[in-house]
Amino acid sequence: MRSLPLLVLFLCSAGPLLAQDRPVAITGAALVDLDGGPALEDAVVVMQGGRFTAVGPATSTPIPQDAELVDATGMWLVPGLMNMHVHFGLKLPGAAGAALADETPAELALRMAANARASLHAGVTTVRQPGDEGHVDLALARSIERGEASGPRIFSAGEVVQVTGGHGSAVDQVANDGPYEFREAVRREIRAGATWIKIAISGGIATPGGDIAASFMTPDELEAVTDVAHRHGVKVTAHSGSPQATRDAVAAGVDAIEHGYFLTRAEFDLMRDRAVWYIPTIVVSQPATMPFFERIGSPPWYLDRVRAVGERHWAALESAIAAGVDIALGTDQLPHEENDGTVATVREAEYYVEAGMTDLQALRAATVEPARMLGIDTEAGSVEVGKLADLIAVAGDPSRDISALRQIRMVFKDGARVR
Ligand SMILES: [Zn+2]
Questions:
Q1: CA 330 to CA 124: how far, in whole Å?
Q2: Residue in 144, 136, 142, 148 with CA at minimum distance from that of residue 87
Q3: What is the pTM assigned to this prediction?
Q4: How far apart are CA 381 and CA 366, in angstroms?
Q5: Which one of 164, 249, 255, 342 is CB 3.0 to 4.6 Å from 346, fit for a cystine?
Q6: pLDDT of 177-187, one tens digit each?
Q7: pLDDT tens digit string along 391-416?
Q8: CA of 377 to the centre of ligand 1 (A)
Q9: Distance, CA 397 to ligand 1 centroid (Å)?
């Protein structure tokens, strides 16, 4: 049940289609060691056919004669960033969201494609989309895979599976009640191409009513979801702010928890013991994000909810890091959204350091850890021969100072330079 046929199919077709035939060789840069060792100075990284074909010191790594040379002297190389909580079709309450009220499915698709391209340019080469409207996320993933649209490689959940009256249900057409309906809903998303299932098990910031601490789903509903998804090799993640809902969901076998606004050390200890992932999305509740909410015209009730959640959310992040739970970076803002002088993805990683991670741990939470959560760590998430050639070049060593990610100079995906 842990074999993932969908992912294997996806990855087999992902690389070569976008790749160029001529090898590319990056020279002069230092390759950061994500296992904590010293960086490899004056490294050579060769990419061809969408994958790394040679990685090593300049003194002993041959460069193919026909290679296109890229001089990265003075830069540090790290794997492409991964952001595990992205809605390319994000619409939030307020003026900016209201302006999209009449958006057609075609307009939504084009807006999402533009956001995907901008995210890739910001250095984010892999994302997971935990819930978007109308299966446009799945169409976008396939379009990028075919080389039509430009963007990160996408792992996607289709539409959020949830109860009547649950978080975000005002914008969702379909709701489910009872285990039979949940089984059907999960199968519907998997049939449409979802490689994750997203359930909403508590209230959230973006829902005007509803208690964030509530636990909406009953044990039989939760177990129906995890059972059916796992039979297909598909993982389940849960939007949750609630300790009770989280305990219920972990007992039912979910694979990941998003946000965790009100979680305490007890829930994170439980998650660590059950190998359940945590995706903090800390940027959504912190004071530095207030100018963003004001920019998009968020209503007063929304700003109040953000303020009410911020401190609890921060304490949850600190508890999760102290507990040693597996953490994968996710923002719930667009990966490239301006935030506190940088982009949301980078700011999120900086917060992890402020909350107790080392710089190296935060860098791993944005690269190898998401790859492990997605089950693609043998294929992506590190700069090694044979792996997918997703890479960024930055003006400092982010394993020593995560804020070096503010200075991204080059972005490669599938061995091709996109910035
Ligand atoms: Zn979200």
A1: 11
A2: 136
A3: 0.93
A4: 9
A5: 342
A6: 999 999 999 99
A7: 999 999 999 999 999 999 999 999 99
A8: 24
A9: 30
